Amino acid sequence: MKTFNVGVVGMGTVGTGVVKILLEKDSPLFEKLNCVPVLKGIADCNPDVKNKLKLPSDVFFTNDAKVLINNPDIQVIVELIGGVNIAKEIITTALEKGKDVVTANKMLLALHGSELFSKARQYGKSISFEASVGGGIPIIAALRDGFIANKIESIFGIVNGTTNYILTKMTKENVKYGDSLAEAQKLGYAEKDPTMDVEGIDSSHKLAILARIGFGVDIDYKQIYHEGIISVDLSDIWYAHELGYTLKLLAIAKKTGNSIELRVHPTLLPHDHPLSSVNGVFNAICVNGNAVGETMLYGRGAGQMPTASAVVADLVDVALGRAGITFNAMKTFSGRCEHIPIADIQKIKTRYYLRFSVVDKPGVLAKISGILGNYEISIASVIQHKARDNGNVPLVMMTHIAEEGNLQKALAEIKRFDIIKDNTKFLRVEE
Questions:
Q1: pLDDT digits (tens, 9 = 90+) for 181-214
Q2: CATH number of the domain bearing residue 91
Q3: Residue 206 annotated in active site
Q4: Annotated active-site residue in 206, 248, 255, 425
């Protein structure tokens, strides 16, 4: 049996999972393959890691990643330290030393993917990154290989388990955002500093990668619109539910003419949409192709072993030579793919949920609907409940399809009315 030597940099949660799989004595890899990845060395800045891992004598440990990179017996480097600057240096140096790379670093790929892919092609090596999106869900392989015969029309889904857990708890248990976040942190689903997740930044990194692979284009990550869940109010979840919708944080990519829509934000979906039933820390991604139609991939989008599973799948691709063939053949990694502009969020067209807090007196609805009509925004449905203790009432509307720029202008004009007593909330809708 042939072997393919691996060096792993970073012994965090995922790195530890990868080592567990590679050191498993009765690993299914030996049953299925004639060429298997074999762990040769580990690099981590924490020397205590070595004692915890109980490594066999033929696997060496170092606190210097360069020792792995410079080792001629190692053919592939697995980068799992995260972040940008140091990780970029490790990957770049590994490629220059003639080693293939496997990474789960979505931030690095979103910000510097084009540069790194070009570097890999320059040195005849590959970069594999299945674990960067969706944990154990093989979405990269599906877009790259399974849907290769399709013209992809849209990719959208739930790609962050932390925010999905929080929104699920808010929806199912009527728990406020702050308390739901605290519970997620207690269970280890959210970081001590949850900004990257709850502000939608993590999802936007993943969306950049999905768009590159799905549409075969180069994009400017900084132009991706992202909005998080920190301002989501329980009342909007209730009213939306009454109207037949479920709230999720979605990453959305759509090819629209000569531009591409890339946006992350809280989104209302009909109750019967498949994504509406994706709860807790699970992820799901819908892909719409002209030949295959709409498909959905579902599973654990994070966690030690699901993500480690994706890393090892990439290692197998490298060991079997598939990664190199794919990387060399696909225009996506050539540095010559089309650079396409990202559509301005003001230009998108969709339906909207609106909630006004208004004075309880006649003529309010007519006044608001009149302004909306002036901006070509028509109302599909309205719900209005009894007055609150302060005399104000929530006025909830669903619009027909409208342009966001027109909606923003209308809301700015409506805000000046003395009948409006609080900030107007709006949510975008995907059918």
A1: 999 999 999 999 999 999 999 999 999 999 999 9
A2: 3.40.50.720
A3: yes
A4: 206
- Between CA 345 and CA 143 the distance in angstroms is 25
Helix, strand, coil % (nearest 5) of the chain?
40, 25, 30
53 and 33 Cβ atoms separated by less than 8 Å: no
CA angle 327/333/335 to nearest 5° reads: 145
Answer whether 182's CB lies under 8 Å from 198's CB.
no
Share the mean pLDDT of the chain: 94
Task: Assess contact for 355 and 425: CB atoms under 8 A.
Answer: yes
Strands (E), 100-145: 100-103, 127-128
406-421 pLDDT, tens digit each: 999 999 999 999 989 8
**145/119 same-domain check:** no
| pLDDT value of residue 388 | 66
Residues 262 and 177 in one domain: yes
**362 and 378: one domain?**
yes
Q: H helices of 174-200, where? A: 177-186, 195-198
Question: What are the structure tokens assigned to 223, written together?
Answer: 């132009």
Please tell me the distance from the alpha carbon of residue 397 to that of residue 381, in angstroms, as a whole number: 6
Q: Note the pLDDT tens digit of each residue in 243-301.
A: 999 999 999 999 988 899 999 999 999 999 999 999 999 999 999 999 999 999 999 98
CB 116 within 8 A of CB 88: yes
Rounded Cα gap, residues 394 and 116, in angstroms:
51
Q: State residue 387's pLDDT score.
A: 64
Pairing relationship of beta strands 379-384 and 245-256 according to DSSP bridges? unpaired
DSSP result, 269-320: EETTSGGGG--TTEEEEEEEETTTEEEEEEEE-SSHHHHHHHHHHHHHHHHH
How many domains is the chain built from?
A: 3
What's 281's domain CATH number?
3.30.360.10
Same-domain status, 412 and 312: no
**Residues spanned by the domain of 91:** 2-135+306-337
Q: What is the pLDDT of residue 15?
A: 96
Same domain, 155 and 295: yes
